[in-house]
């Protein structure tokens, strides 16, 4: 075995800045998901209103939407998307050990390290928002197909 010491140097100011920005990006993931959730709620509330307005404008006073399967799919998907988005914004309780930076993946425990908390929180919200987006898209496609 080679006993020669490995040469090291302290990190430069650029490297320290990059490390700090990396840590900030991990901590900001959950906040970014919250911003996305707020934007989705705006869309999820506006699009059904625009849909109803467009139907009213194109059909006039006789605008009646039949209670067809497409109607139920459209508004059911939009409602489900809104609920999933709202759930993503509701704070969730996590068990975090502030003395651990990153939990050993071999250890099966519900207690998270600090870095694990930020990643798990963002992943939880991301999954809900992706599902909400998919349901919302299905609702938009169903609404478009229902008027054809």
Description:
- With 148 residues, this protein is mainly alpha-helical.
- The chain has one domain (21-146).
- The protein has three helices and no strands.
- The chain has helices spanning 13-59, 69-89, 114-146.
- Helix 1 runs antiparallel to helix 2 (69-89) and helix 1 (13-59) packs parallel to helix 3.
- The mean pLDDT is 86.
Measured distance between first and last alpha carbons:
76 Å
Could you spell the SSE succession in H and E letters?
Answer: HHH
How many independent structural domains? 1
Total helical segments:
3
Q: How many E-type strands? A: 0
Percent strand: under 5%
Largest sheet: none
In a nutshell, what does this entry contain?
By secondary structure, the protein is mainly alpha-helical.
Please specify the SSE layout and strand pairing.
Layout: H1 13-59, H2 69-89, H3 114-146
Helix pairs in contact: 1-2, 1-3, 2-3
What are the defining features of this structure?
148 residues; mainly alpha
